[in-house]
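Hi again,

Forgot to attach this to my earlier email, sorry! This is the prediction with magnesium ion bound. I've pasted everything inline since the attachment limit keeps bouncing my files.
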Amino acid sequence: MPKNKGIIGAAEHVAIIMDGNGRWAKSRGKPRLYGHRAGAKRVRDIVEACPQLGVKYLTVFAFSTENWKRTQTEVAGLMKLFKKYILSEAKRLVDAGVRVRFIGDRLRLEPRLVQLMDELEKMTSKNTLVNLTVAINYGGRDEVARASRRMAQDVAKGKLNPDKVNEQTLARYLDTYVLPDPDLVIRTSGEARISNFLLWQSAYAEYEFVKTLWPDFTVRDFQEIVSIFGSRKRRFGGLLAS
Ligand code: IPE
Ligand code: IPE
Ligand code: MG
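Structure tokens for the complex follow:
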């Protein structure tokens, strides 16, 4: 098979569960938010490494629908960090050719954060080099439930024939409707679970669970995983051509 323009692997869409910020901070005797700040800093390098690795889509899990269960201090600190991150990274993202999108339920997020998210999506909407999707207040089950609700509303309005509903129909109602399914899902910090991330979309994704805590995850680690992916054979339920 020809290599992807001489590039290792062909993981067009990589999704990352950025886990381990809390443990990273704890091991340094620091508060959890210190770990989240260090974690946020790691995102830039990874995004900017995507073009050379042939990764067109990068989706990162920043805050789950279950993360509201954390202390008020941690939740408020994370929301503040998201706002600060958008403000400080916007120009660089625009210049680097990154198109940013957000997935998740925005209704529970504070208006100022939603406004910044909308603005960043608009500011970067002409970019095409890399597609960065950030999942905030995202849960796979919640996404399918919200999609089903909108689909049912369309049926009630007579806009959708219920007998015609199939996998493609539901996929169009998901937050990710413009994105291809992920080829590879990486989770850092040694936990081998998906914690409600892209449940529908990763039906056939390859998974890589790595021990490294997210704030320690480097471009080199990323490169290595993407190249391992390139050597795997995916069957999608069928047989390999011999
Ligand atoms: C991931 O790191 C970031 C978020 C969930 C916001 P954690 O905060 O889950 O870190 P650990 O798992 O406690 O180490
Ligand atoms: C998943 O990590 C969510 C994010 C990385 C944003 P968690 O740390 O919240 O997941 P659990 O609690 O270990 O399953
Ligand atoms: Mg965690």
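Residues 72-95 form the longest helix (24 residues). Residues 17-19, 61-64, 67, 191, 193, 195 surround IPE (ligand 2) (CB under 6 Å).

That should be everything now.

G.
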